[in-house]
Amino acid sequence: MKKSTIWLLTIVMACAFLGLIYVQIMYMENMVRMRNEQFSEMVKRSLYGVSTTLEQDETKYFLEEDIADVESSFYSDLPNGQKNRSFEYSVPSPDGNSSLKIKGNWSTIKVEGEEGKSNSNFRDRYKSMQEILKGQYLYQKGLLNEVILNILSKSSNRPIEERADSALVRSYLRSELENNGLQLPFEFALVRRGGNVVYQSAGYAPEPDGRNTYSQVLFPNDPVNRINYLKVMFPTKGDYIFSSIKFMIPSFVLSFILLFIFIYTIILAFRQKKLSEMKNDFINNMTHEFKTPISTISLAAQMLNDDSVRKSPTMLQHISTVINDETKRLRFQVEKVLQMSMFDRQKATLKLQEVDATTVIENVAHTYKIKVEKFGGRISTQLDAEDSIVNVDEMHFTNVIFNLLDNALKYRRDDVPLDLKISTRNIQDEKLEITVSDNGIGIKKEDLKKIFERFYRVSTGNRHDVKGFGLGLAYVHKMITELKGDIRVESELGVGSDFIITLPLIK
Asked: Is the pTM of this model over 0.70?
């Protein structure tokens, strides 16, 4: 797949995911806004209901007071001596067979039948008629606007604590909120126009900006300077609003899971694309590396067919040396290729055994000394570790040291003699630290994180003498990891590099 196709699919999928997430966010915002508006509307209706109920209680209070005044004035209007004056009336019954007698005074009335006996049913009927008349009176009283206005003008003189008792307000609030479908805990306060609190509930603590506080004027017909406000807040309003959109959480979770899978798939696609390109470069490089020794061996074989060459012992010795050297070179390249197969395995097959790392390093340094001196350099060791017994595969551990030395030899500087150094020391937590140092060209900071990747090769500018497949350091990293160790690199461009290996000691 072309890189442009991958980028096109990435852009299309990214736009689709962003659009999906945007729609979900907008839907959630609209749900929250609508829920807030609905909540505010229900609270306002409830507060208005409380205010109306308190006004009705106020009106009822003054109407009852007025009725009491009317009843008392009725008796007071009678002439002196008439209140206790006795009277007697005889009322015939509807059927004409009997009569009712009403006798007594203005303060006490006694009703008797024809035989002079008490008639309790008539008294009950009389009381019922009184209640009906009282209701008609109240109804007529309610129609008199001037009387109502007078009552309301008098009410503002009463203390607000009596007109809106805290227990009564709490009861009305709870009832009105439940009627509007809000069964939430609430806190409230009665506040004067100037901001002074008349009383408040124990948990009333409004926010400074007053966002979640709702207010309602009580007794709006009172004079302006005596206006009072009922303020209510809901501590669990956020949970109430959130409960209406919590069903969106699984949708968001699934969307982000799909987004994560998409991003991970794209990263894998680019990584596989890069790996494919690296493998192609590897095959081209490998073909070139194999072609040279094969061509040399082929040429030497052709020379052996010449009779004059076979007659010269010197030429035969030279040709045999060339064939031997090129065969070794070819075998070394084959081993490099075989190392690549290890990266496709889940876990390398190792023959672990107790090995003295100091002894292995000394042998490697001694073997590599001739090769380094051939290029005018030197190799030294500083083996300060008192305990160097580690549990490793000796062959792979030796190859790790050789690979690091080969890497240093490849990337040497031409202006100074090559200087290699291998040092060991014991560090805390019973570990062995091995450092391979060189004074080569160094590594750029942007390359330090990639040098242990397969097929990755550090750019060397216009130099074409650095051969390899980009597997050496990847092999080193895999082997050290398999041996439960750690490797890191410290490098400065133009100064050199330090490859530091840490391995656990045998306890």
From this structure: no
